[in-house]
Amino acid sequence: MEIIDGFFKAITGIFNESGILTLNWQNYIMIAISIVLLYLAIKKQYEPLLLLPIAFGMLLVNLYPAIMNPPSVQLLTAEQCAAQHVELAGHAQRVIDGVTYYENPTYGGLLYYLYQGVKLGIYPPLIFLGIGCMTDFGPLIANPKSLILGAAAQIGIFITFTGAIFLGFSEPEAGAIGIIGGADGPTAIYVTTKLAPHLLGSIAIAAYSYMALVPIIQPPIMKALTTKKERMVVMEQLRPVSKLEKIMFPIIVVIVIAILLPDAAPLVGMLMLGNLFKESGVVDRIAKAAQNELMNIITIFLGTTVGATASGQNFLSLSTIKIIVLGLIAFAMGTAFGVLFGKLMYKFTGGKVNPLIGSAGVSAVPMAARVSQKVGQQENPGNFLLMHAMGPNVAGVIGSAVAAGVLLNVVGH
Amino acid sequence: MNLSYLANASGIAAEYSLYEKWIASAKVILTGFVVVFAVLFLLIAIIKIYSAIVTKVQDRNNVKKHKKEKISQPGEALKKPVVIPVQKNNADEPVVSGEIDGEVVAVIAAAVTAMYGTKGKAKIKSIKKSGGRSAWANAGILDNTRPF
């Protein structure tokens, strides 16, 4: 009888702690959303390297919310300590209403600890280190005017800031939302953790979703703002860039940006360190580790924990819908301003610049450059814009890091 | 829809007055625009200057190197340039650029024969080395032959 009684008690205990009783309707909606995102990542291959861990993190936190719980202190009486086999020695005591309680520390959830790398702004710069190792700044050095397009595409960030302010967000929140227009996931996460950590889940998901949708969002804007004649421009081949120029580039850029805009130094510094690893050619092992093992490990941690911030209670709100709409506006504006400045360059150079390369200024490396190439080739199949578009594309990475530094400085202090 | 309604509905208090919103927006747009463009224009100037210096120094070094080589090997300069003959045979044989190895010609001929057979109408008229594409152009071609 005692065995059966114990068995029923155990089953009741397990049932009471199960998700069937503890989860609410928001969690179930988020579980459904995460399954849709998993489908998009696996079947449609939309940014699968990030969308898959993000979606799974989202799934995990909504199935088992305690996985993101911070460590806490449990107050136990002497009897409870004895029942739970907790040793009394070494525990601080607290007397409440004449009863002595012992402070028993409990551990946080697994993803809480991994999330500290996001919260403390460690993962995004490390991702930038890997990106730096994989980036060739040659096209940008060969044609430094590409930086104008990289700057123009950041205008969307600041205009969206205005939209967010008028939709009722605070200045730091508006800054974090605007940075979606930079189309740079690590930068968006970095800025959001500093300015509005409570919006991290929505902003990260909006940023990565739009980055995955670059081939769908950008072409209509590019075509609407350019004429057929402009789209058909074949650009002159870029000059070859010497190794010395490539080695000097990261050193000079980090000196200039870190002195002028210290808030951008962690991101730009790591980007340029990674690039120096690559270009110097003397630390091949480190360069390979940074762009492969380190970047992959950080991607797992970053993706899963960012997804885990999207619990039903945080994510399902009107502000998330507004963030998604504002993010799209930011992205579209960035593309439009890039193309418009491309048109200006077309006029000033007497038709030597194809305005389509301007849209690549939104970063989203290398997808945005590939879109410029693709749209250009639709008009002129013999036109290869890819290398020309890579200039504004990598300039956009620097531009969005600079824009992040401006936002952190203006609204973060 | 009223903006303040949206803000209140989302649980975010519209703390700023309309005037404050305009001021905050104008401040960020102006600062962002000016700083981002100023920093990137400065980078353009610096890249142009150091690229010009590096190119000049490297060109000068190359000229010096060439001069040294000429001085150390005076006979070399007098030598006639090596002319790579282009083989032009009878009408049935393809015109093969001199820099292409015989083995490569044999492999190309074998591949064509394997594809079209010996009795087919396929005929190799000439074999010459193409100009070659940069890695970026190759990546572009690869990319555009695949769907997104």
Oligomer: heterodimer
Largest interface in this structure? A-B, 61 and 48 residues
Strand content of chain B: under 5%
Number of domains of chain A: 2
Provide mean pLDDT of chain B, rounded.
73
Overall strand count of chain B: 2
Number of helices of chain B: 5
Strand order of the largest sheet of chain A: 1-3-2
Read across the widest sheet of chain B, the strand sequence of neighbours is 1-2
Low-confidence stretches of chain B: 1-13
Structural class of chain B, please?
mainly alpha
Counted beta strands of chain A = 3
**Beta-strand percentage of chain A?**
under 5%
First and last CA, distance of chain A:
67 Å
Main sheet properties of chain B:
2 strands, parallel
Mean pLDDT of chain A: 90
Share of helix of chain B, binned = 55-70%
Descriptors:
heterodimer, A: 413 residues, mainly alpha, 2 domains, 3-stranded antiparallel β-sheet, 4% strand, B: 148 residues, two-stranded parallel sheet, 62% helix, flat
